[in-house]
UniProtKB/TrEMBL annotation:
Name of the protein described by the UniProt record: Putative 4-hydroxy-4-methyl-2-oxoglutarate aldolase
Binding positions (substrate): 95-98, 117
GO molecular function per UniProt: metal ion binding
Keyword Cytoplasm: no
Positions bound to Mg(2+): 118
Record keywords, A-Z: Magnesium, Metal-binding
Length: 226
């Protein structure tokens, strides 16, 4: 019989999380083929908030947080609660009490395709929370859902154990199996961008690839330049 709570999954390693935390979500998105970034509606409550950790997925019915309470009880330090709240903003799924428990238990952060409340208090806690919005209305606590199963959050497929990196630009999801291989690519991307920015500051502002791209797009004729 299939259980609604899946406890058997492999988490991305703490060492990979530590290394991935050094990079912006945008860098990881670029080296991941511009895939894995959640819809921009899911944003940090405050721009300074950052998350890096291993996903623990939760699926709930809109407006009900029963399974989130269960997930908090099952979560391990370093986990990121990633909650498919169906994008519903008519009531908050979490607030100060639950976020305080998450922080106390060592969870790396919370991501909700839904609403939260007590945003000022969460800000004062300095606990990283990414949500689709806020609402003062509270949730119910009696509708079943699922924990540890694949979900869709912000338009992206997420499995428990996947790498999550989130910052002011948004939330990035990397499949656990791909995470380690992306780190050297991310390092090189940062090095290349650092070099390019330094060159721009010295006056080399021309995008050397631009003319060829415009010709390929049919904007410029062959041999023509801007």
């Amino acid at each position: 019989m299939t259980t609604d709570i899946n406890r058997e999954f492999e988490r991305v390693s703490p060492e990979i999380v530590k290394q991935a935390a050094e990079y912006q979500a945008a860098i990881l998105a670029d080296v991941n083929g511009r895939r894995g970034a959640m819809h921009g509606r899911i944003a940090a409550l405050r721009p300074r908030m950052k998350i890096a950790g291993s996903a623990l997925t939760v699926e709930v019915r809109p407006g009900d947080n029963l399974m989130i309470h269960a997930a908090i009880s099952l979560a391990k330090p370093g986990d990121v609660l990633v909650i498919d709240g169906k994008g519903d903003l008519t009531s908050a799924l979490m607030g100060t009490i639950m976020m305080t428990a998450c922080k106390q238990l060592g969870l790396a952060g919370v991501i909700i395709d839904g609403a939260v409340r007590d945003s000022l208090e969460i800000d004062e806690m300095d606990y990283p929370v990414f949500a689709a919005g806020t609402n003062p209305n509270g949730p119910t606590k009696f509708v079943p859902g699922r924990i540890g199963h694949p979900i869709t959050c912000g338009g992206v497929n997420v499995c428990s154990g996947d790498l999550i990196v989130a910052d002011a630009d948004g939330v990035m999801v990397v499949e656990r199996e791909r995470a380690a291989a992306l780190l050297p690519l991310a390092r090189k991307k940062v090095e290349d961008e650092t070099s390019r920015i330094a060159a721009i500051k010295k006056g080399d502002t021309a995008a050397k690839w631009l003319d060829a791209a415009l010709r390929a797009a049919g904007v410029l004729k062959e041999g023509e330049k801007l």
